[in-house]
Amino acid sequence: MGGCFSDVRGGQQAIGGGQERPFEANSNPNYGVTGQNDAVQFFHRARGLHPLFTQLELSFSASNLIDRDITSKSDPMVVVFSKKKDSKLEELGRTEVILNSLNPVWINKVTIAYQFEIVQPLVFYVFDVDTKYHNIPVQMLNLKDQDFLGEANCVLSEIVTKHSQSLTLNLQGKNARRGVRNLGTLTVHAEETVASRSAVEIVFRCSNLTNTDLFSKSDPFLRISRVVESGGYVPICKTEAIDNNLNPIWKPLCLSMQQFGSKDNPLIIECFDFNANGNHVLIGKIQKSVADLEKLYIEKIGANFVFPSSHRGPDKVLKGQLYVDRFLEKEQFSFVDYISSGFELNFMVAVDFTASNGDRRNPDSLHYIDPFGRLNSYQQAIMEVGEVIHFYDSDKRFPAWGFGGRTMNGGVSHCFNLNGSATSFEVEGVEGIMAAYASSLHNVSLAGPTLFGQVINNAAQIAGDSLTHHNNKYYVLLIITDGVLTDIQETKDALVRASDLPFSILIVGVGAADFTQMEILDADNGLRLESSTGRVATRDIVQFVSMREVQSGQKSVAEALLEELPAQFLTYMRSRDIKPGTFSSAPPQIT
Fold first, then answer.
1. CA 286 to CA 268: how far, in whole Å?
2. How far apart are CA 155 and CA 122, in angstroms?
């Protein structure tokens, strides 16, 4: 496989054809790739390009703007900024100028990369452009020379989660000073720029492949690449490798139109013999378009592989053939499709109260509450993850538990209500979680051992019970821990059972412990968890990060934890053929 994407996630696994990517890769004209898959992600990151995201277009309209002109109406323009962590504004784009209108509807859109795992504050300025500047391109306008009509701000998630993906905001004076006068409203609408949701599910089979191994049979896999205008090609996906088999049948691949472009675009399909050292041996190759593959399926015929000549002669036609056993066109929905149609993410938290955290009164303790307001690792994880996910939960009521602590009744509990209530486990908002956590440190003694099983089972029961009422909720449990698991097999059993539910688990490791066990639970090595009865998890539902490793890098805790969540969400929805639907919701409110 050369240096393209060798040995990603275990090497022998399929990549990029399982519908698991929720976002588009950043398009780059040098490589011609807009596919939604790990192969492209690795291809881009190896070249220092951007990670995956969903490209959105923001469009704007306004009502009842104030009139700054004397003899005519205002000539408004919108300028969009992103607000950085240091509160500085970075301009994203501008609309055109609409002449003489207090109720403008702009045509030009502003493009923004929507990333689920990041809170993305936006600021919108509306200006009245002076007549003498009308012949100047809007990007060249000096905003200081224009009359200010009002500003508004929101978080991108607030727009995306609206049923209509539209949000109406009251315009205010500079620096959010509303004043007495009504400055009008600005409506922002977001729309995905995906050209098509079409996808094709394909099952490939081969027969009579050439054996390249000496003492056994080849371990074949297919790599599919898209030919680009320059004549080169880039990988879009690969199948899993099948051991010792010259007549393999691979698991289904799902290719989106963003990956292959159109049904007539040529694809290069290469068959390799897998080698663990990454030096995979080419067995043969073939060039076919998606339309050609459909024809193979309809006519139930195979196509011969060829082997490139080393002497500029004709390629050698091989005995081995490629067959298409399944060809199914389908519609592929994105994460944004589900969220904007009424699907919700319900947030839950579980906090480790084992003694290894250290006495809360000691400044070295992981549970130490700093009197000057500096957040400890538990508080930081709750705040960073909670401030992202709470936008996707309509009632903002979050189950919150502790485990491994000795409660007021004197016994050690491995799942107790963080708010101290005997009957209610929910708290109001992220602030409620923070308050319940701080209060519990005075009422719960640190004990042990570290057991996840009961917390996971309780959270999974909530997710399971929800299926009898609705299917538009997906549950996310955040577990924050400092210790080594005592119930590793019980935890695996709980995770395997939960893998069938609308449920994901985020685990943050705090402190200096060895978190090797957590990495096993994460299953990022491609090996799905297996229960004590031999049952294999339906899918990977765990994402683990170590706080100390995150803090030494560029990402926040929330980014590192949440980047896999949309993919896990989509894997669940697609595996059950759940499509975005229309759900009853409250009418949009002006904020």
1. 6
2. 6
The encoded tokens of residue 3 equal 């240096």
Q: pLDDT per residue over 427-462, tens digit each?
A: 999 999 999 999 999 999 999 999 999 999 999 999
- Termini Cα distance of the chain: 53
d(CA 551, CA 380): 11
Question: Hey, how many other C-beta atoms are within 10 angstroms of the C-beta on 275?
Answer: 18
DSSP string of 375-398? --HHHHHHHHHHHHHGGG-SS-EE
Pair 158, 121: CB distance under 8 Å: no
Question: What pLDDT score does 372 carry?
Answer: 94
d(CA 500, CA 382): 26
Only one residue has tokens 């784009």, namely 93
The pTM for the full model equals 0.71
Structural contact between residues 89 and 83, judged by C-beta atoms closer than 8 angstroms: yes
Question: Which distant-in-sequence residues (6+ apart) come within 8 Å of 383 by Cβ?
Answer: 375, 430, 434
Separation between Cα atoms, residue 489 and residue 478, nearest integer Å: 20
- Please give the share of the chain, as a percent, with pLDDT higher than 70: 85
CA nearest neighbour of 222 among 151, 155, 288: 288
Say which residues have a Cβ less than 8 Å from residue 65's Cβ, sequence separation at least 6. Answer: 74, 76, 101, 102, 103, 104, 126, 149, 150, 171, 183, 184
| Per-residue pLDDT at 29 exceeds 70 | no
Residue of 402, 429, 426, 400 whose CA lies nearest to 414:
402
